[in-house]
From TrEMBL:
Belongs to the acyl-CoA dehydrogenase family. GO terms for molecular function: acyl-CoA dehydrogenase activity; flavin adenine dinucleotide binding. Its cofactor is FAD. This is Putative acyl-CoA dehydrogenase. Keywords: FAD, Flavoprotein, Oxidoreductase. Residues 247-405 form the Acyl-CoA dehydrogenase/oxidase C-terminal domain. The lineage of its organism: Bacteria, Bacillati, Actinomycetota, Acidimicrobiia, Acidimicrobiales. SUPFAM superfamilies: Acyl-CoA dehydrogenase C-terminal domain-like, Acyl-CoA dehydrogenase NM domain-like.
């Protein structure tokens, strides 16, 4: 049997190294950064020194850039192996950033690696991999149209000699204020053969004249990180196009598949943290004659959370294995033999996002008023968890696609097996 959920001794050792680094370096560093105990939060140069000091230690420890090939300074891990790294890294808030595998940079690195020219890789990908930039952003979502349907994008670009002139409106652009460049998706084709061929992508150096930062959008978890951008007569050279004309939709979908699963890997870490806290609380809180852990209502919450976390881990591992299998196939692989992982990623993304919210919610309930306060990380985790159900595709869109694939599988083969993982069971 080829099915094996164990790690090689080398990968198990790597996982333990990452776990130890998170516990011994990143978590204490986070407490210092945020002013844990009696200290004041670090600011300015002191904050930057502490943050980049942790990155330097991660590089020296050989746990840097796990998702990128070795020739780009990475660890060359596949997606199954990356799941192990992300699930450990995301036990801490800054973990993915310290290891340089955080969104949106992680997805942008994959995109530049696959679609960028040699000159674009040298200018934009190399500094990202080295960790020597403020980062990047991906500008696709717009306020006027549904973000889950990129064929409706209204930001437009028209060609003027060797340049393109771009006008439009973007928002919820994560990391835009600190980014050194953006990957911008806009409409370049008026009458494409198919709606998915209307958009193209450009790399925009930041700051640029015509790229106007309107505000940071206030969200449930505060007012940092997500920008509204007004684009007015922004000029960009034709050399800055990423991929070919009309390939913006294809590029975006290529980026979002693995990126969705990477989010799931990090969400699993958050859910596991919440479950650990829930069980610990139940073993240390006495009420109405017994510990909470001895009460059936609490046991059911723990059991439901354990089962859902188990499901989430299996779904992510299987979807990751299909991405790895697809990437091993050559360009000459016949279309009917290509490994398709879109369905598995959609199902994982939908399930894990919802599982995350449910597990954190139960953990808050078991903690009572303490869980609702900011004395534990649960309140902050819960605010972020609500975002998971529409980031990288709303629940309802994924459900629609899952249903469409299931109906198509039955129509083609008189069986839904292909749409439910195509597993040997």
């Amino acid at each position: 049997m080829a099915i094996d959920f164990t790690l090689s001794p080398e990968l198990e050792a790597l996982r333990m190294r990452i776990r130890a680094f998170v516990d011994d370096v990143i978590k204490p560093g986070e407490r210092e950064l945020e002013g844990g105990g009696d200290g004041e939060p670090l600011a300015g140069r002191d904050r930057l020194r502490a943050l980049f000091g942790m990155r330097k230690q991660a590089k020296e420890a050989g746990i840097w850039l796990p998702h990128m090939p070795e020739e780009w300074g990475g660890m060359g891990l596949g997606h199954v192996e990356l799941a192990m790294v992300q699930a450990e890294a995301a036990k801490s808030y800054y973990g993915p950033w310290v290891f340089n595998c955080q969104a949106p940079d992680e997805g942008n690195m994959h995109t530049l690696l696959h679609w960028g020219t040699d000159a674009q890789k040298e200018k934009y990908l190399k500094p990202l991999c080295e960790g020597n930039t403020r980062g990047s952003c991906f500008a696709m979502t717009e306020p006027e149209v549904a973000g889950s349907d990129p064929t409706l994008i209204q930001t437009r670009a028209y060609q003027d000699g060797d340049e393109w002139v771009i006008n439009g409106h973007k928002w919820f652009i994560s990391g835009a204020r600190r980014a050194e460049f953006a990957i911008l998706v806009c409409r370049t084709e008026d009458n494409p053969d198919i709606p998915q061929a209307a958009n193209s992508a450009f790399i925009i150096d930041l700051p640029s004249e015509g790229w106007n930062d309107v505000r940071e959008v206030e969200t449930m978890h505060g007012g940092t990180g997500h920008s509204e951008i007004l684009i007015e007569d922004l000029r960009v050279h034709n050399d800055q196009m990423l991929g070919g004309r009309g390939q913006g939709h294809l590029l975006g979908q290529y980026r979002l598949g693995p990126a969705r699963l990477a989010h799931c890997m990090r969400w699993i870490a958050q859910a596991e943290t919440a479950l650990d806290m829930m069980v610990d609380r139940s073993l240390n809180r006495f009420s109405h004659g017994s510990l909470l852990a001895e009460k059936q209502g609490i046991q059911w919450m723990i059991a439901d959370s354990s089962m859902e976390l188990y499901q989430a881990k299996l779904m992510v591992l299987h979807a990751a294995s299909k991405i790895d299998a697809a990437h091993k196939q050559g360009d000459d692989t016949p279309a009917d033999e290509r490994v398709d992982f879109k369905g598995e990623v959609s199902m994982a993304k939908h399930f894990v996002a919802n599982m995350l919210g449910r597990v954190i919610d139960r953990a808050i309930q078991v903690h009572g008023a303490l869980g609702y306060s900011t004395d534990t990380p649960l309140a902050h985790m819960y605010q972020h968890a609500r975002w998971a159900r529409f980031a990288d595709g709303a629940d309802e869109v994924h459900q629609m696609r899952i249903a469409q694939r299931t109906i198509a599988a039955y129509t083609d083969h008189k069986s839904t097996r292909r749409a439910t993982g195509d597993l040997p069971i």
